[in-house]
Amino acid sequence: MILRKIVTDNSDWDSPLPEQYRSEWESWKTELQCLQDINIRRTYMNHDASLSKAVRREIHLHSDASEDAIAAVAYLKTISQEGKIHVGIILGKAKVAPKHGNSIPRLELCGALLAVEIYDIAVNALDIAVDCVQFHIDSKVVLGYINNRVRRFYMYVSKRIERILRTTTPEQWTYVPTHMNPADCATRSLPASQMQNSPWLQGPVQLYKKGQNEVKLDNSTFSLVDPENDKEIKLALAVHVVKSSIEDQCIFGTHRFNKFSSWTALVRAFAFLRNKVCAFKQRNVGNSSHLCVDYKAVETFQLVERWIIERVQRETFPEEYSCLLDKRTLSRNRSLLTLDPFLNQHGLICVGGRLRDSDLGKHEKFPVILPRKHHISTLLVRHYHEQVKHQGRFFTESMIRSAGFWIVGAKRLISSVIHACVKCKRLRGRLETQKMADLPVDRVSPAPPFSYTGVDVFGPWSVVTRRTRGGQASSKRWGVIFTCLSIRAIHMEVVEELSSSSFINALRRFTAIRGQVKELRSDRGRNFVGCTKDLQIEAINVEDAEMKKFLFDKGTVWRFNPPHSSHMGGVWERMIKTTRNILDSMLSEVSDKNLTHEVLTTFMCEVCTIINARPIVAITSDPTNPFLLSPSTLLTQRTSADVQPFVDLNPKDMYKEQWRRVQYLAERFWNRWKQEYLQTLQPRRKWQCDKTNLNRGDTVLLKEPESHRNNWPLGMVENAICGKDGRVRKAEVRITKNGFSKTYTRPVTELVLLLSDKGNDLDTSTSDKE
Predict the structure, then answer these.
(1) pTM across the whole model
(2) Which phi and psi (to 5°) does residue 507 adopt?
């Protein structure tokens, strides 16, 4: 035991003995001197007793195990004619237990196996007749293993139980408490001074008692201990017994066809099985030669196809098949009555019909009838759908009829197969949509103009920068449009290049004129993303130091829409279209040679004036209300019509206190904005219906407008981002491109769902706080 501890501590053989083990080592060496005083009797009985005259002879074996050792010991018990009991040790063994990978029940089982091995040695060495052999163990778990007749074990336990039961029977095994088990002396170590009088050499006390010689429990108590949590016991399988006749077993059983996913694989499997059965039958009749028959022959496949179809028809149409077999008339309520069915020479139900005298082929005039709801019909539809290269329902149905099959209700089955076909979805599947989301707060709440703004860049235009003798030098200009999300006003700036510096200057000019912006929204254009870093779906932190300082000083938050989702920025995208239309009309009156930066800037200002003066609600025909609701009303505080003063406003103060007039105009604007304009945003113009949400793990096709549809990459949804209403309108998709895995954030309108993973729950998705 000491040596085992030292080895466990990874001590070197040449290093001195550690101090914590020195006293124990010295005590052990001292105890070795006591071994010279130990006497073991040579005979199994006392000198005054004779083994040949004993009335009864018994062999008792005890086993035990601990984390340190495994031990077993055998004793011979004899009863003389006078009734005296003699017990002598036959053989005992102790082994060091393995260091790793064994639990206490496994070690106890190894101790029981050691007891069986000792018994085999003793039986071969002793030349006496034995009346009884009994094995004793203090582990109820092992006794449950030995008496088990219900559950199955894993390999480690199974092999050892098999070896134990090969020599012994479960009735020979009994339970003994640990304090009465002599093998416990070897597994827990015993000082040499106590060994002479120990139960290991003298035998257990209970063997010297008359009558009940051991503590024995009823065999019914030797059951498995906690079998559901025992790692050595295999999981139980539930078996359901179904009674059926021999005829039913021969006819029915086509549910096994559901294990196949293609018609070709099903036919080949049963052709191969038929070939093996034929070979087995020939060997049984005395032909031992190998059966060299090609099961892939056309005749074999045709024979197997007819056999499969016959089994399906017998199972699906039992009454019709019985009537046709007996040449009885079908009842009028049968579904096949209109097809005039009959049995052909192969015993298959075929369509009779009215085309007997046509020039069509026999298999087309009399196609085989199949049910729509059987798996075989689905396999055939898939097979011929692939034959027509994934064309529509009419192509597939025509090919099925030409092949000689008539599927009852084929149209619905073909449509369902095409709808679930992954390749058809990849070639022609529609992009995903979702019900239109509610408008955000910044669209439906009164706020100062341009507090919530959408920004985008459009252009370019070529302008003349300078004139030289050789001609004119031109450069490009872009327009930056800022759209107020509440009153729909716009502000435009002209920039010379698509850089962070130019955009920051345009933003500074905009805020200097229009005031502080609380929140900016934009798409993920390169001119915007180039100076930002997307840390979350919602919040955007800016990398550019100057941009970061500017936004921080202004208290502005910048939010990005997902990539490729221009419909989420429709507020400013619509303004860009209107701006282009007006600019095209203006630029048509100016020659390209005369378009300068100054002229373009002037045009931009005029466009802002025209757009901001437009009415944002329908113009009323009421002459008593000539006031038009337009963005310029709030921006300029001017209107072409005279306004009526406040009720509590003194006419003398109208011109003394101008702030009251400004307040009146603003209040009138926002009242009409709520009553007239805001109501126009209520209906959903499109995407009115709820759609099934994408889930994590779904396989999708990622749209790439610059690539052909066949080259669109496959991806898996990593995260389905929910809105406040619980609907998914954007998702994070992981694709593998050029050997590297990348994750993109895309709207559902850029994804085509191919395969859905129903096991995931949408509640685990990230919530979209927008």
Answers:
(1) 0.51
(2) -65, -35
